[in-house]
Design goal:
The protein is an alpha+beta fold. The protein has one domain (2-26, 37-431): Outer membrane efflux proteins (OEP). Helix content is 64%, strand content 14%. 29% of the residues are buried.
Length: 437
């Protein structure tokens, strides 16, 4: 009689544990030790903050900013070439002996020359054109930097969303682990009470081990995602996420949205710059005229060298024949303009295709998410009914383990559908040029 009471108490404890697990999501289960791949998290960032930090501090964006400075330096050089210049020089000449005749000194033994030169271009069409072209290249560099920042922002957003999805998968796996732990406790209680079998307990233990491995893998995915986000945001430690972004895309009509994309702006600017270079090609044949004023002072003066002199010089350079070099340069410039037009056409086609694909994906993923949630609801109900049947002895735990797996797979499918839906909304924002703002 005492043995029977003990067995009934053990079974009651097992049933209570299972009920608590079903009601609380397994809160009674022991918390497994933290995996070795856990790393200290430096910051917890919201979606917009993570994107802006990546844009501001990522080395790729910083390299693009240096390209702007290089273009500005080239513009300064082009401007200097068409501005007045002033030079000065001091020359000391020492001979073995002074030179002269009839008592007159023609060349002193030691003589110093102080000379200066001030020159300015009077007519320099090619150089003036080069200055304007250098100014346009600064604009191109800035647009290129904007496009690089856009790419960095998109990479940061994708890393952020991968962490959000990985965390949700951890929740799915941990709930499945807690349910499997409750089933193992129940099977052990039944065996110890003399009404269960070792086989059922082993099946439950096997299922628990499989799910625990899945938990570790999903946790590892979170840790790796945090490390990737920390790298993109130039943090020395992993960075975690703070919630899920809304990512609501505006409904834009027409083609005006294409001009808000940084890559399309860059392609347009390249065409304009290449067209200016081609249009300025004729200026390479215009004569170049430069005027200079050169004063000098010599001490001590010689017989034929007065102390102070000056001269004014006007130099004109006329291109006559260069062996076809300028013609080849013009052809190369025309090719560059043609390639820029091809790039623009390709970019616009890709942009419109990206928008269409993103809209189709959003609609398809919304339907897929709805079906996945419906399947997960059915799988959870099947698991509940199978669990009741198993407790009533109407089935074995083989069906129960299969129902657990199907329920976990259905929840995983829901999480993956949610991830795809978020990425589709992000892709639409990127394609419309609305991200990053």
């Amino acid at each position: 009689m005492r043995s029977l009471l003990v067995n009934q108490a053990v079974l009651a404890a097992g049933l209570a544990a299972v009920l608590v697990a079903a009601l609380t999501g397994g809160a009674f289960a022991q918390t497994p030790p933290q995996p070795a791949h856990s790393a200290p998290v430096a910051d917890v960032l919201a979606f917009d903050d993570a994107v802006q930090r990546a844009i501001a501090a990522n080395p790729t964006a910083e390299r693009a900013a240096t390209a702007v400075r290089s273009a500005e330096a080239l513009l300064a050089q082009a401007r200097a070439a068409v501005r007045p210049s002033i030079d000065g020089s001091i020359v000391t000449t020492m001979l073995d002996d002074e030179r002269g005749f009839s008592g007159n000194v023609v060349q002193p033994q030691t003589q110093m020359l102080f000379a200066g030169s001030a020159s300015t271009p009077v007519l320099a069409m090619a150089q003036w054109a080069a200055r304007a072209q250098a100014a346009e290249r600064v604009g191109l560099a800035r647009l290129g930097a904007d496009d690089v920042r856009r790419q960095v922002g998109v990479a940061a957003a994708e890393a952020y969303l991968s962490i959000v999805g990985a965390k949700r998968q951890v929740e799915v796996d941990e709930r499945a682990r807690d349910t499997a732990q409750a089933q193992l406790d129940y099977a052990r209680a039944r065996r110890e009470g003399g009404v269960g079998s070792r086989l059922n307990e082993l099946r439950a233990a096997q299922e628990l081990a499989v799910i625990q491995e899945a938990v570790e893998q999903s946790r590892l995915a979170v840790a790796l995602g945090q490390e990737a986000l920390g790298l993109i945001t130039s943090s020395d430690r992993p960075v975690d996420t703070a919630g899920e972004p809304a990512l609501e895309a505006p409904a834009l009509d027409g083609e005006s949205w294409t001009r808000s994309r940084t890559d399309i702006k860059l392609f347009d600017a390249r065409i304009d710059a290449a067209g200016r270079v081609v249009a300025d090609s004729w200026k390479d044949w215009v004569p170049t005229v430069r005027a200079a004023f050169e004063p000098q002072y010599i001490t001590p003066a010689g017989l034929f060298s007065p102390s102070g002199t000056w001269r004014a010089v006007v130099t004109a350079t006329v291109p006559i024949f260069d062996g076809g070099q300028r013609r080849a340069v013009k052809t190369f410039r025309e090719v560059e303009m043609s390639l820029a037009r091809v790039d623009l056409k390709d970019g616009e086609l890709r942009a419109r295709s990206g928008v269409r694909s993103a809209r189709v994906s959003i609609a398809a993923e919304a339907l897929s998410l709805e079906r996945s949630r419906e399947a997960a609801t059915h799988a959870a109900e099947v698991l509940r009914i199978t669990d009741i049947a198993f407790r009533a002895g109407a089935t074995t735990n083989i069906e129960l383990v299969d129902a657990q797996r199907r329920s976990r797979d259905a929840e995983t499918a829901v999480r993956r559908a949610e991830d795809r839906a978020r990425l589709a909304r992000l892709a639409l924002l990127v394609a419309l040029g609305q991200f990053p703002r």
